[in-house]
Write a structure and sequence with these properties.
With 336 residues, the protein is mainly beta. The protein is 9% helix and 50% strand. Strands 1-28-27-26 form a 4-stranded antiparallel β-sheet, with no helix packed on it. The chain has 5 helices and 28 strands.
Length: 336
């Protein structure tokens, strides 16, 4: 593990997975790290405010960072890598709503969806219009109304669907997984939700399989990893749940490794439960979907592991440990 400036949050790696951008929430900046088995900080990019979850555009040109308000910061990646003082292009904003915590970019790079945690909405931005119009509200299309406290959003690989997790109105209550028609969201966001299903207590993060057939969700207060059939979510929601795997305390982020055959889950223990500890749970994907015991074991983590991304051609997993101010490097070959 390497010590980093305060409160590392989002982690994304460049297209070649040789560099990593880590949002340093307590330092109003983004750190550019050499993404090796022993990561090192190359430079810090100062941002005019806090940065939370991050996403790269598919072409690798722009880094988006949720701003805690009503939108996301936009950073020119090439300029950031060169250390330019003009790397931060500005802030795109919905103009209202608060609590921007996560951002996702559509596979075609045309749209960005930003989770507004405090507003119960997903803000939709047309990226080309935003960039041409000088950011601000230039690219704002409208907002998707979802469940209370939306925390994450992920696109299907074909870009037709998006999936949003909403924690629910309070701790330890059932939250939802919302299915969004991306085409509808591009023109009429208010009518874009096509299905909504219970997803355990406090669902907080979501990813899709490489094929798009399975949607994976962490339910933080249920200490569970859930698998849903993407097809059934739209046609037979009551029978969409495929598997429920018990993991560690208060799971947050999750990431595929080893070509999608394993999922690593960040058990955050963010509420310091007596007798519990933060860890990284390793889950066998095929065993999960076959209904067999799937939890392979745990790896140690720092305090409150929050986000993850693969680096070095998939050989390394980088983990931001929010409360212990560390960037952890995991050798994927040594996973159970």
């Amino acid at each position: 593990m390497v010590a980093v400036p305060p409160n590392p949050w989002g982690v994304v790696t460049t297209r070649d997975r040789q560099l990593a951008f880590v949002s340093l929430n307590g330092a109003d900046s983004v750190g550019l790290f050499r993404a090796t088995s022993d990561p090192s900080l190359a430079r810090q990019i100062e941002v005019p405010g806090a940065v939370f979850g991050e996403a790269l555009t598919p072409d690798g040109r722009y880094l988006l960072g949720a701003d805690g308000g009503a939108g996301a910061w936009v950073i020119d990646v090439a300029a950031a890598e060169k250390g330019s003082s003009h790397a931060v292009l500005g802030d795109m904003t919905a103009g209202n709503g608060t609590g921007a915590i996560a951002v996702a970019v559509s596979p075609d790079g045309r749209y960005a969806f930003v989770s507004l945690e405090d507003a119960g909405q997903i803000a939709v931005f047309n990226l080309r219009h935003a960039l041409v119009g000088g950011l601000g509200g230039a690219g704002y299309v409208g907002s998707i109304l979802v469940g209370p406290t939306p925390t994450d959003v992920a696109f299907s690989p074909d870009g037709q669907w998006a999936y949003a997790t909403s924690e629910g109105p309070d701790l330890n209550v059932a939250g939802t997984l919302d299915v969004i028609s991306v085409r509808q969201a591009e023109t009429d966001p208010a009518g874009a939700v096509v299905a909504s299903v219970p997803a355990g207590c406090n669902p907080v993060r979501v990813i899709t399989s490489g094929s798009g057939d399975v949607v994976w969700v962490t339910a933080r207060a249920s200490d569970a990893l859930l698998a849903f059939s993407a097809g059934r979510l739209r046609t037979d929601a009551a029978h969409a749940l495929l598997a429920d795997v018990r993991v560690g305390e208060a799971p947050v982020q999750l990431a595929f490794v080893r070509g999608g055959s394993r999922i690593v889950v960040a058990d955050s223990d963010r509420f310091d439960v007596r007798g519990a500890a933060a860890s990284l749970a390793v889950v066998d994907v095929s065993a999960t979907l076959a209904g067999r015991p799937a939890l392979l074991g745990y790896l140690p983590a720092g305090q409150f592991p929050r986000d993850m991304a693969t680096a070095s051609g998939g050989r390394t997993l980088l983990v931001s440990n929010y409360s212990s101010n560390q960037l952890e490097s995991v050798d994927v070959a040594r996973l159970p």
